[in-house]
Amino acid sequence: MINKKVANVTEACKGVADGMTFMLGGFGLSGIPENAIAELVRLNVNDVTCISNNAGVDDFGLGLLLQKKQIKKMISSYVGENAEFERQMLSGELEVELIPQGTLAQRARAAQSGIPAFYTPAGYGTEVAEGKEAREFNGKMHILEHAFEADFAFVKAWKGDTAGNLIFKGSARNFNPNMCGAATITVAEVEELLPVGSLDPNEVHIPGIFVQRIFQGERYEKRIEQRTVRKK
Amino acid sequence: MINKKVANVTEACKGVADGMTFMLGGFGLSGIPENAIAELVRLNVNDVTCISNNAGVDDFGLGLLLQKKQIKKMISSYVGENAEFERQMLSGELEVELIPQGTLAQRARAAQSGIPAFYTPAGYGTEVAEGKEAREFNGKMHILEHAFEADFAFVKAWKGDTAGNLIFKGSARNFNPNMCGAATITVAEVEELLPVGSLDPNEVHIPGIFVQRIFQGERYEKRIEQRTVRKK
Amino acid sequence: MALSKEQIAQRIAKEVKDGYYVNLGIGIPTLVANFVRDDIEVEFQSENGVLGMGPFPFEGEEDPDLINAGKQTITALPGASFFDSALSFSMIRGQHVDLTILGAMEVAQNGDIANWKIPGKMVKGMGGAMDLVASAENIIVAMMHTNRAGASKLLKQCSLPLTGVQCVKKIVTNLAVLEVRDGAFHLLERAPGVSVEEIKKATEGDLVVPENVPEMTF
Amino acid sequence: MALSKEQIAQRIAKEVKDGYYVNLGIGIPTLVANFVRDDIEVEFQSENGVLGMGPFPFEGEEDPDLINAGKQTITALPGASFFDSALSFSMIRGQHVDLTILGAMEVAQNGDIANWKIPGKMVKGMGGAMDLVASAENIIVAMMHTNRAGASKLLKQCSLPLTGVQCVKKIVTNLAVLEVRDGAFHLLERAPGVSVEEIKKATEGDLVVPENVPEMTF
Q: What are the CA-CA distances from residue D41 to residues A199, B216, D19, D98 (Å)?
């Protein structure tokens, strides 16, 4: 098998540079590539465009890059949990492109799949459709959306092997599988990196061909955004 | 959980009628819905259109429907293993639309996904592209392809539960997951039908929402088309 | 008397039928799950990748890898499945989800809905709402009839940026149940003790009132 | 002397580099796997949903649920994965597969390829070939230089229905290794003992012959 294992997050992030476009998996703080984000903060890459469903919270996730004003532009569907984000956006410091969540997922999957463009009903008749081709199919209006283009995709999985095969857990799966192979280089971090042959080929969610570099994250905080419980 | 279990193949195929369009999973004879095919033969539905990557062999798989001349039109990517097929096609008895294999898979996935149309490079400049819109993206020509429309999808999985969740095995997976939910009614047959709660939610390949009816197949012949071995 | 948020949810729960896959938005819609009858089978879909969502976990059993679209910790019922975001929106866009219940800032009498942006003031994003309203055949809006300033949220035309066009079919507010049809709001039911006059006053858009407007039952 | 099919495969195996994901077509391409060096890591993709394809199974260990694109029983190596057809063609269309090796009935000097249909006579279908040739950056055609009737398969223009346009970069035949560039076949290597004259005679399309044409090594 082709070996995708790199020693650590520093090696995994080799080549990131100012002005690049990154895709980042995760929904809220669930399933985010914590180690890669920490490294991007440490490397202090600037003027980056981030494609990520959310923007983290003020002091975690992509919020860490926002605090240091490393992000030039965000492409997201929902950014409601982040006061610093809202401040930078309303003041014009931060460029923001808000797009429907399903369109975000599908534009990632299109990039992964070599599909340059597709039609979707989401956003027709709204400001999301401005400047986009509209067309009727089966009596219903749709708009043309394009595959993303990005330099790096940073994803987080539960388990992986050195061939780059990935298995996700629970709803921490979210956008992570769709972003694998959707950028020039896909960096996967996993909680547990196993030798080849450890994973059942039937249970692999993302085959290693979509992953260029894989490493085991040093630690995972896995912060919970909204702790909701019921009484026993 | 919503119960998708039906008693047997007869109940599962209720509503099939002459002139309908069926999608059928399987690659060659691997992962084909053997029980549903047998029932379609028994029911003697005629003038049907079948969307299936292959057409079986003379005496198994879709070849059984071909023998009885139940099929009006085949939409496939490769039909090389079937002499009766070739005879009917060359004589004009059978209408055949040959399309690229990846386009077949993606048109099924598009139907499943509510994506009415997408662009693909496959077939540009060939007779497959005739009458289709061609457009350049990123300096490369693509053609516009549409989602399939079908009345029934017949798929075969390895394990399933009564909520309709499916798990496939090996390369018998092939087109089966992509066809789930791509037709008005999806009928899944499984080798083993388990009670709800038996499957790990992380390992489910196709969630039950894409399946309307599920049953355990009575027996599976699982014929091998090309038995190739090496010496010990 | 006008309904509480719980009562709005309770009334909407009556619209949930046996065998439905349902997507619940944040806010009042989330409460609907608490009021669905026990004798029917319903599965809740969460667009971040869960089908067969269960109740909140018991204290100490929260799993950061298992949340709903509101980022709340949840549980999964036996028979649940997890999947990626693309497949999740395949369920939504492909009309496999039977019913979508979501909140709104404004609804227009042609079925337009606005619920994601107040220009220059509140810009949280549309999340999955644009996909949901553009795709669902069956959309129920759960909201208060008027905003905090007392202005009607049922309008001739939306003033805020749209989430979707001509898509809302039914609205349940603290005052009434209404159907959106033929370019007007049709009054179906009124909250117990709420008069037709009160509803008329709180509705800016064209309101069609039949001779008899029954009180809601729960 | 002209190469055998095994020797064509052996020569092509030299083009397979460490770290490559490779898709092998039916026929001569399938044989390439036997000749890839042991000291490099290569993974074979089968478009019906296998990555990390291994050799044929031992007798008695055949699994009907594990076949390749030629419907032959195969095995999966440790580290393999199985997936659906849509994801398989995501690998191909998305250019994640590094090298595609396939057979052809005809190749034109502009890189066009025909390998799926002889009108009125043989109509098996294109299978995955149209996706492969439209997407792959790196395509090698493995074929005999002439057909059974002795006619050249390297043409000015294809006469059969096309599989793809301007996509073939390299051809390995029983007589030669050729590059397709600037609208002509460029002769790179000749089979041991085969003269440039022989190759010229067997090539209908424009052939560019450099001063020195080395013999192939394996």
A: 19, 41, 5, 13
